[in-house]
Amino acid sequence: MYSVGLMSGTSLDGVDAALVEIIDYGIDTKIKLMEFITLDIPRDIKEEIKLSCHEEKSSVDLICSLNFKLGYLFSNAVKEVCKKAKFSLENLDFIATHGQTIYHIPKKRGSLIPSTMQIGEPAIIAYETGVKVISNFRVMDMAAGGEGAPLVPFSEFVLYGSREESIALQNIGGIGNVTVIPNTGNINDVFAFDTGPGNMIIDDVCQRLFGASYDEDGKFASKGMVNNTMLIDLMSHPYILSKPPKSTGREEFGQKYVDEILEKYKMLKSEDILATVTMFTAKSISENYKKFILSKVNLKKIVIGGGGAHNKTLLKYIKEELPNIKIVTQDELGFSSDAKEAIAFVILGNETLNESFSNVPSATGATNKVILGNITPSPIRR
Amino acid sequence: MYSVGLMSGTSLDGVDAALVEIIDYGIDTKIKLMEFITLDIPRDIKEEIKLSCHEEKSSVDLICSLNFKLGYLFSNAVKEVCKKAKFSLENLDFIATHGQTIYHIPKKRGSLIPSTMQIGEPAIIAYETGVKVISNFRVMDMAAGGEGAPLVPFSEFVLYGSREESIALQNIGGIGNVTVIPNTGNINDVFAFDTGPGNMIIDDVCQRLFGASYDEDGKFASKGMVNNTMLIDLMSHPYILSKPPKSTGREEFGQKYVDEILEKYKMLKSEDILATVTMFTAKSISENYKKFILSKVNLKKIVIGGGGAHNKTLLKYIKEELPNIKIVTQDELGFSSDAKEAIAFVILGNETLNESFSNVPSATGATNKVILGNITPSPIRR
């Protein structure tokens, strides 16, 4: 079976399209990545997405139209990745699309009930490509009382799960999050939570003190020394050692937080501040492992993915803090870190077509397992 | 096969739920209406729908939450109609839902592209009932270049089409619209268009001059006399004799139009004004038949449905204008006028499950026939 997975994240860096071959099915599912592209989002559409996400600036006419525009953009991403691979659209079995999240209400808030909204009309994608589309994965988990996220633990279990060793998948995006896959072979034993900041603080500090959008390879931090007083202070943030399940975001480790620490430690050298927040990020991860993972699971390996996997200083710090565990990056294992989420949705879409459950209630909080997603048939009957 | 069809119109009178049995399939599809209810829309939800439809007052958080709230409301409508029929949800094969239209852009307008948006999350309906849901019928027709409306001609062809006689289905809702089904047995020969005002002007005049929300049985109009000068003036409206395909709405025959005619003819008696706008509505229908239907099709019968079918004065006028054609109401034929649209979506949903085309390009303007709708599997695998 051949499929294209589509992912367009909230960072708006582009539309990820992964063309994959699905080999076997079930616990033995193997995925072969054939081609991967990230399609730029045109500036005017990016602007419309930002407006559509905004409580005050959004409006129904804009959202109605943007849903269709994104359908066309996602169709182009499918066409482009197939063209690059010289793979005919006619040989695609299905497309799995996450859509663009424009709003997410994990918990009741005033008159707003728990709900989530991803747009990028699947009918447009199906019509433009002639291929069946699986979409809207998050809503059914929320119908079952879950938060609709994270959905990746299922694909991580399928791709990385092993009966030989227990492993953890540590993603370092803006936020750090971990999925723990014990070697029981039972998806019910999988658990996941946010460890704390990922690149969010490092990037922001880097931008303000070094004028660079991120610390490439961790080179700025490598020149600094960790300041222990500041580190202890940062580590006292209540999120770090609060018990899972837990999730965090820009509300806790965003600009406001960075404003405060930069003001408080302005007497330190820039390199030292960056080294310290990099160590803070490393230790927020390692301390969560020590407290909440190693006590439960005999962990042998950590696989690091996301942009943070490229920060060598951060990786070095994490290895120092967890000396007895093998730490590798996703790319070292031969898995594309960039294509990870687009591939995850192919795996979820395949489960939908097989009428199989694919949420992980221990990760999302759902009361039961459900079949995720809906199916838009190819409009031209192939 | 058993199914519930759900319809919630823009008038917000309630959620229509029709429990039906589908007998046979294809050109011989027969539908037996087992039970029908209209569930009230709670006042707060009605308010949220109105806000969500409004360009200035709508916002993404409201729409995100309302999509789920309507999912729960629609689920309740399914449960209620099954309960009233003492029919177990477990025996339902599928649910077909139109959703609540919150926006529709039939043609490009500035930066807004042709698109349409119906909400009422199918995942919620599928989870709450345990039944497979077919939804979002209009989007695929728009993907194929159509206006996404009208979709009823397909079900009208299935239900009323006959090789013996050519018939017309005249719906009189706010707007009047006709579907013509020639006796060729070929759906490609079906055509449809808006004839002009339906109850829109009558209701508005009735409200302002008689303080009643509509002219029950046409009793107020029956006491008046048609004023010929006024009638000729009204009939000069350019829409009436403009060539199909054509569609109209509140922009042309809404409050502003009524303001103008009431001002211009304020010297007339209220009964006479109402009789005249009732005759105008009748003649806008009959003149369209004479000019655009009878010249093409040897029409034997007109079936009248929608709220206007209850207005006896209006019906009498139409009969006078078209003396050689048999005119009956849907209810006289044994078809529920109220349940018509909810049943239409069961028929469309059934086509989706059979991977069969169900738009009528000659009615919507689509460039080709397509399979409409998407399928949300029952989340609990039945």
From TrEMBL, chains A, B:
Reaction catalysis annotation: 1,6-anhydro-N-acetyl-beta-muramate + ATP + H2O = N-acetyl-D-muramate 6-phosphate + ADP + H(+)
EC number from the UniProt entry: 2.7.1.170
InterPro entries, sorted: Anhydro_N_Ac-Mur_kinase, ATPase_NBD
Gene3D superfamilies named in the record: 3.30.420.40
Metabolic or biological pathway, per its Swiss-Prot or TrEMBL entry: Amino-sugar metabolism; 1,6-anhydro-N-acetylmuramate degradation; Cell wall biogenesis; peptidoglycan recycling
The entry's keywords: ATP-binding, Carbohydrate metabolism, Kinase, Nucleotide-binding, Transferase
Binding site for ATP: G9, T10, S11, L12, D13, G14, V15, D16
GO MF terms, alphabetically ordered: ATP binding; kinase activity; phosphotransferase activity, alcohol group as acceptor
GO BP term, example: 1,6-anhydro-N-acetyl-beta-muramic acid catabolic process
Entry keyword Cell wall biogenesis/degradation: no
Highest taxon above the source species: Bacteria
PANTHER family: ANHYDRO-N-ACETYLMURAMIC ACID KINASE
Family named by the database record: Belongs to the anhydro-N-acetylmuramic acid kinase family.
Role this protein plays: Catalyzes the specific phosphorylation of 1,6-anhydro-N-acetylmuramic acid (anhMurNAc) with the simultaneous cleavage of the 1,6-anhydro ring, generating MurNAc-6-P. Is required for the utilization of anhMurNAc either imported from the medium or derived from its own cell wall murein, and thus plays a role in cell wall recycling.
Protein name from the UniProt record: Anhydro-N-acetylmuramic acid kinase
Native species: Clostridium septicum
Gene name of the record: anmK
